[in-house]
Amino acid sequence: MTHSPPLPPWLRFPKTILIVLTAVTIFFFLKMTANSRMETDLDEYMPKDHPAFVYSESAEDKYGIKDGIIIAIENPDGIYNPGTLQKIKDLTRELQDMPEIEKTDVMSLFTADNITGSEYGLDVRAFYNRVPTDSLALAELRTNVRSNDMVLGRVVSEDETVSLIISRIGDDTFSQEFYQRIVTLADDYSGPEKIYVAGRPIVEGTMALLGPKDMVRMVPIVIFVIILVLYLILRSFRNTLFTLLVVLFSVIWSFGLMAYLGIPIYAVSTMIPVMLIAIGVAYGIHLYSHLELFLQKNPQADARLAVSDLVHEMWKPVTIAAVTTMVGFVSLITSEVYPIKYFGLFSGFGVLVAMVFSLLMIPAAVLVFGLPRPRKKITSSTEDTAAQKFAHAFAARLLQRKYVTLGITALIVILAAWGTSRVWINSSFLDKFEKDSDIVRTDTFINQNFGGTSSLNVILDADSPDAFKQPEVLRLVDSLQTRVTRQPKVGDAFGLVDYLKRMNQVMHADDPAFHIIPDSPELIAQYLLLYEMSGDPENLWKVTDYDFQSANVTFQLKGDDSKTIQAAVAGVADLETEFKNLGITLNYAGSGYKALVFSGLILEGQIKSLVISLFLVVILLSLMFRSITAGLVGAIPITLTTLISFGVMGLFNIPLSTTTALISSIAIGIGIDYAVHFIDRYRIYARQTGDMELAIQKTMHHSGRAIVFNAIVVIAGFLVLLFSVFPPNRSLGALVSLNMFTSFLGTITLMVLVLESVNLFCKQTSSSGDCREKRSKS
Amino acid sequence: MKLRIILFNALALTLFLSTSLTAQTMTGLEVVESVYNRTAPQDMQSVLTMTLINSRGNERQRTIHQYLRDFPDGERKIMFFAAPADVRNTAFMNWSYNDGNRDDDQWIYLPALKKVKRIASDSKGDNFMGSDFTYDDLGDRHPTEDIHKILRQEELDGEMVYVVESTSKDKDYMYSKTITWILPEKWYGKKREFYDEDGELLKILTVDGIQAYDKYWIITGMTMHNVQKDHRTTIRLTDIQVDQDISQDFFTERMMKRGIR
User: Fold this and answer.
1) Containing H/E element for A458?
2) Which residue in the set B52, B108, B120 is minimally distant from A123, CB to CB?
3) For residue B236, what are the contacts with CB-CB under 8 A and spacing of at least 6?
4) How far apart are alpha carbons A570 and A587 in whole angstroms?
5) Is the peptide bond before A192 cis (omega within 30 degrees of 0)?
6) Whether A122 and B126 lie within 8 Å, measured CB to CB
7) Nearby residues of A540 by Cβ (< 8 Å), 6 or more positions away
8) Residues in chain B whose beta carbon is closer than 8 A to a beta carbon of chain A?
9) Pair type for strands A121-126 and A454-462
């Protein structure tokens, strides 16, 4: 072991390396700080050319479908008093005056038209203009609301204690500042009435605010814990520093390159540092661990010698690990979702950069600053002997009781497979908040009193004009609305038929028996004309089009989760054939539906990429180790980790979302890393010793040790996120930790056992021809 | 559409003679009064074609036969829909009053329902037949309701016009102000801009057809463009007949039911 290979040529000028790397990093850092741009418009995340999005966007544009900010005013004594009515009026006016809100997009009891009928005529009036003060006028207003189903249960709650003001806003209007103004406005009007603010824009806005804010608070603690644990493990300030610098520099290069190329930071891009921390820390640990073991065996070796050995022994596994990990990430470019493509691309770039840094910066630093200060000789050696003993004992025990491991693994795999079958995707924003948070409680409150805070738009397209003047078509639409509204989580439906039924009743002296679709298409056409002449014609173009060839039905849902939306969609689809027989096709629109399709695409891309990367990893490892068996064995940790990750999500009812789906990428990164280091080291020892059990024991001490260190550091760091106030960040912490743990455990147990049973790397080197034979004889 | 009481005709003529000589020195109010007092027939019948165009370029067309006549207390009007077919013979009657405090009376007749219903509405900003015109835009606003100011004189389509700004005295009026390009001598507005309550441009009215019938100048073509919603309404008048002495009894519920003759 005394003569080492010469120092590789690129390490001849270590100072230059450090200076150049630092300089380029500073360049990227400046690019990053100057050019980085956060993308907050959720529509920018959607694939623009996907048919579902194209359709939804055009329908949104055509019917003015916008998400609404819902302000609820609650007065337990009832809303029919001058004070509350004045507040409804003033709040409506203030909202209408906001530059972000179009005047006609604010709907409240103050803006609503009350169309009533008598034997004699038709009356179109506002419910009130001047706030009524005497009891007679207040009672009349109350009667008017009670008898008008266009507002009762939609604008005023059945129990008359809550009234809504709904302001529809465009997708790109929402800003933190605007959100603050809305909240301040609501506060200003509170007391004695309670004012609630809800609706999708508010939920999205709060999430966009809370998630990153929580991360800003948690990340320094995560990094602090990682530094602390790294230091405890590496016992050297300098080693800790350079291990972290590798990660930090790779993050800066990734984000710097993104900024340089003008690619904005998406919400999923925040997962890039998470990946690079989990993966990048490993490189430093493996290198320093090897260095330490080398110095234990060769206490007299100088820096040059140590570095030569380090680079010679480690460049290959580090490169193989990094390249395969990178391939795993880059396979995400098959996703249809651009933020995911970028995530894969720049995580891959980061991994590559981390590899180059660890192979350049860490050896260069040793050459420039000298070898790490030796630990106290005695404790070090005793402790290390203990560690070595433990590693060897563990390996021996593992091989002796392989059926215990295999049995437990089989059990876990079955359990995980069952769990995986229960995994569901959730595109809900609300579910990301605590059940007792203000935002969820407000939402629940409004859902109890009204149709629902979320919505699904069903767009009906007929093959000929004037279809939506035909009684049989309108009756089918009416029965669709009634049917789907029967679902417990669907609170209300609204569309053209509601206007027509109301007009029919009003024109028959308000007789409720005429709250039906009339029989004559002419009468329907004449009602529509009358509505245009007496009501607000703009309202009609929110539910149908100029040719009456298509219609928009809005369902109010009491939840924005995928199960609720899917149930409503399924309910609508039940009538698809009936509509088809009338020449009408069904489509869906709205932000809730888009989010549903979007998370489906993300998941699809993720699964596609997992399969592709698994395939590529097997090929790459087979090529690198020149053995297909090695390639297959190397895929074990990834497969196991992914399966368990999904299984745990299914078992613990953690739904798949954009972030949780991406965590499975860690399985690829870490799983490959562990497998490569272990297999590579095992190959060396197997060839050296020709004894399989000994090779496994030695590898367990060498690579197993580094793997344990890596797992401990990252798990400790990410467990910090369990104390986060934002549930998605808690899931992130738990799942990253879980993935690290299963990768680690899977590698040193199941993979080792399989490695042993396939008898790899032995035949060609061992003198007796078979390691196993030799072992069984000994 | 303009209908003026005969009584004013003489006055208008004198105004016309005097103002044309002293055009440079006219006040805004005088200019607007000249328009208000333009000679108009006592009764008129015509076929009105209304085209509605939304921001997506979709068009809808309606054909309406309209009859109107001056009464001592105001103006009465009946409109029968001729097309589209499914609303044929739907009739609408409007009685407006010279007394500015009195709301218009309105009736609707739906042939499929065979019933005349009276419509009461409290909003003066109601759109006329779902178009970009409000009832107010089509009626005559009395010059004293606004404060008028001549902004400038300029050339519009080769003709010198007065540009007059009219600001409502009533703060709650739906328009904060209007700016009208008024052609002297014929005394009609060629173009008008309507500004909403926030002072932002809301609509632009362009008059592109005016024809002489007997001694009257009748506007036969105009377009209202709501620039905020990018919605347009074009109105064309054809088959115009003036001073046919339409019977006073024509403007009744009974006639509404009778439909187009």
Assistant:
1) strand A454-462
2) B120
3) B48, B49, B51, B209, B220, B221
4) 12
5) yes
6) no
7) A496, A499, A528, A531, A532
8) 52, 54, 56, 58-60, 81, 84, 86-87, 90, 92, 108, 110-113, 115, 117-123, 126-130, 229
9) unpaired
In this complex, is the C-beta atom of A404 within 8 Å of any C-beta atom belonging to chain B? no
d(CA A593, CA A434): 23
Q: Which of B111, B115, B129 is opposite residue A532, by nearest beta carbon?
A: B129
Alpha-carbon distance of A775 to A691, in angstroms, equals: 6
Contacts for A300 with CB less than 8 Å, ≥ 6 apart: none
Q: A550-557 and B105-110 as β-strands: parallel, antiparallel, unpaired?
A: unpaired
pLDDT at position A775, please?
44
Locate A174 and state its tokens.
Answer: 């929402």
- Looking at residue A763, its pLDDT comes to 54
Q: Do B121 and A534 touch (CB under 8 A)?
A: yes
Give the DSSP letter string of A405-444.
HHHHHHHHHHHHHHHHHT--B---SGGGS-TTSHHHHHHH
> Which residue, among B179, B155, B117, B143, has the nearest Cα to B31 in the 3D structure?
B143
Structure confidence by residue, pLDDT tens digits, A236-289: 888 899 999 999 999 999 999 998 898 888 877 878 888 888 888 888 888 998
Query: Cβ separation of A507 and B112 shorter than 8 Å?
Result: no
Three-state SS letters, A485-543:
HCCCCEEEEECHHHHHHHHHHHHCCCCHHHCCCCCCHHHHHHHHHHHHHHCCHHHHCCC
Query: DSSP readout, A175-226?
Result: -HHHHHHHHHHHHHT-SSSEEEEESHHHHHHHHHHHHHHHHHHHHHHHHHHH
B60: nearest CA in chain A?
A546
**The residue type at A565:** I
Q: Do A124 and B119 touch (CB under 8 A)?
A: yes
State ipTM: 0.85
Look at residue A774 in the predicted model and tell me its pLDDT.
Answer: 45
| The predicted structure's pLDDT at residue A67 | 87
For B149, list phi and psi in degrees, rounded to 5: -145, 130
The strand order across the sheet containing A550-557 reads A490-494, A550-557, A454-462, A584-589
Residues of B whose CB is below 8 A from A517? none
Is B129 in contact with A533 (Cβ distance < 8 A)? yes
Picking from B49, B95, B53, the residue whose alpha carbon sits closest to that of residue B236 is B49
Model pTM?
A: 0.81
Shortest alpha-carbon distance between residue A478 and chain B (Å): 22
Please give the Cα distance from A760 to B197 (Å, whole number).
Answer: 84
Least confident segment among A76-85, A321-330, A384-393? A384-393
List the end-to-end C-alpha distance of chain B, in Å, as a whole number.
22
How many beta-carbon contacts under 8 Å exist across A and B?
Answer: 91
Are A533 and B141 in contact by the 8 Å Cβ rule? The answer is no
One-letter amino acid of A616: L
| CA angle, B112 then B117 then B121, to 5° | 125
The candidate with the shortest Cα–Cα distance to B229, out of B128, B127, B132, B126, is B132
Q: Which helix (H) or strand (E) holds B11?
A: helix B7-21
CA A710 to chain centre: 25
Residue A341 CA to residue A637 CA, distance in Å, equals 24
**Nearest-CA neighbor of B30 among B139, B166, B170, B191?**
B166
| Residue for token pair 């100088």 | A302
CA distances from B16 to A277, B2, B182 (A): 87, 17, 14
Which tens digits make up the pLDDT trace of A598-642?
878 877 888 888 888 888 889 988 988 888 998 999 888 888 888
The structure tokens listed for A698 are: 């030695």
CA distance A647 to A640: 10
Query: Would you tell me how many other CB atoms lie within 10 Å of the CB of residue A627?
Result: 18
Please tell me the distance from the alpha carbon of residue A123 to that of residue A104, in angstroms, as a whole number: 21
Residues A537/A443, Cβ–Cβ less than 8 Å: no
